[in-house]
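Q: Could you write out the predicted structure for this multi-component system? I'm mainly interested in how the pieces pack against one another.
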Amino acid sequence: MHVLVVEDDERVAGHVVKGLKGEGWLVDHVADGRQALFQVAAETYDVIVLDRMLPNVDGLKILQTMRAAGDSTPVLILSALGDVDNRVKGLRAGGDDYLTKPFAFSELLARVEALSRRKGVVQETTELGLADLQMNLLSRTVTRRGQPIELTTREFALLEYLLRNAGRVVSRSMLLEAVWDYNFDPQTNIIDQHVSRLRAKIDKDFEPPLLQTVRGMGYSLRAA
Amino acid sequence: MSWPRFLRSLTLRLTLVYMALFCGSVGLMLGVTYVGGVWRPLRQVEAQIRRDSDALAATYRAQGRDALIRALERRAAAATAKTRYPYHVLTAPGGAVVAANLVDWPRAGGREWLRYEFGTYATGTEEEHEAVVRDLPLPGGYRLLVGLDTEDLDEREDLIFEALSWGAGMSAVLSVLGGLVMTYAVSQRLDRINRAARAVIAGDLSGRVALHGSGDDFDQLSATLNEMLARIEGLVASISRVSDNIAHELRTPLTRLRAELEELAEADDPGDVRERTGAALEEAQRLQSMFEALLRIARLQSGPKDAYGPVDLSRILEDAVELHRPAAEDRPLGFITRIAPDLSIHGDRDLVFQMVSNLLDNAIKFTPPGGAICLEGRPQDGRIDVSVADTGPGVPPEERGRVLERFYRGGRGEAAGFGLGLSLVAAAAERHDAELRLDDAAPGLKVTIRFRG
């Protein structure tokens, strides 16, 4: 998987590049708008991570130039301009997703992978699973150690998202956006109640527990 | 009051204009009186003299000198107290007087019409008289002067000119005096307003314009200005309270973050490291959330409305119920919902969801276990009411304005969150042209957002 990171802040770029490499991605990095335009034209990427505020050429300008040239590579916009209006502007300019700084790396990774799936690079599966937990997306059934588990529609969606991001930390706002399709920062533990209900169903009668709470970050579904 | 400023005064300029108008109208009035009372009667007198003198000249030409003298004497004798006294003078060639009842007349002719004054001693005392006289040369070197007494018109004319000069003079003096008084009074009042404004400029926002107490235009202006100043003072106070609060609110999580990081620097045990890192991240998350909420509120108060469009409100309400139901059930609280189908508004979907979500959060948070919350969405008077009611402690009426302020927690301490939830709802409601109302649900609080349908 080939990703281009366009980000002028060295520390942020270093953090993102190191993290993506660690996940097995092939990463190119440019820090300047004009260079980015050149790179995008010269190379084919699976996903582009694009900062909005760049020297020389504005991030949105790059995006528009790309889209005008018929380049449909999925783009994740990174920005310190976090309000709804800027988000809408970014998405209208042709962005596929939008992430506000500061962000958790796990969230960036989840979004980058979702974008690469959208492009059809990853094969669409009908089965998801972790350890002895199995999910069938066609029959919409979940079993653990062979025993069927009854889930509500929402719990099913929640578990599906966690399974797709198994081994990674997902934040509460990621869950809210992916499962409920609303974008805002919940200031209370409202998501936690849903997660603990799900946990009661998949973990209570089984060992070892799969659904972990990662303090200060969110949740993670992992076998360890 | 310095002289140049006095001259620049609008009041003074108005006074001068007023004075000119006043003098002008006095002049006009006297002019009309003059035309009616002097000028026109004089023209009538001249016409009569013309008729008389033409008849006398005809008599002379037809019947000779003696007949003319007799006619002149008859004319003089016919005079009564009610008519103008007729004057005449007839001189022979060389200037010798043939007949005359005038004492004095201009010897050398030249002008046909004369108007002049003379004195008589008919009653023993000198009497002023004025006459209009026509000087008419007759054939054979004779000269005939025929006239009528116009002393009354002269007196009237004098009276009018006297009135004019006195009237104009006095009104000029009076209007200058009045102008000075008016200018002084007005500038006193304006000075008060100026002084108050300068005090405010100098930084004393509590400065107010002193009222005169008469309820006049200036008092009304001053009262309006005072209201404006009070509003500005209130806004500035609330802004400075908010920034004080922000500074204060940031201090706590920053201190905790620092403490966690300091302990992390010392930690050796992996479990301890994970624990400290998690706690530090939690504080960072808290700071970030607070910032985001603050920025969001600030952006809602200005900024463009790009994300606005038709929104399926019924769907949003159902989703919000679904999201919050577990929290309500865990407490436990009854959760009653009455949502009319197909409610639609114009707005920002995420923001509307957040408003409803914040209200439900609060209701769940503040209602003691065993109570109930209720979410309602229904059309009302052509608008759409969304209300969240609870059976919690409610908010006393005097606190209802303040709970919308940023960081206000109604003395409930940190358990209540950032104290930004309702501020965000208020800002978002205003953004949507929606009314936000807090009512007593007896017991509990009922918050209603009234959207435009």
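A: Regarding packing and overall arrangement: The interface with chain B takes residues 82-85, 87-89, 100, 102, 154, 180, 182-190, 193-194, 197, 214-217 of chain A (CB under 8 Å).
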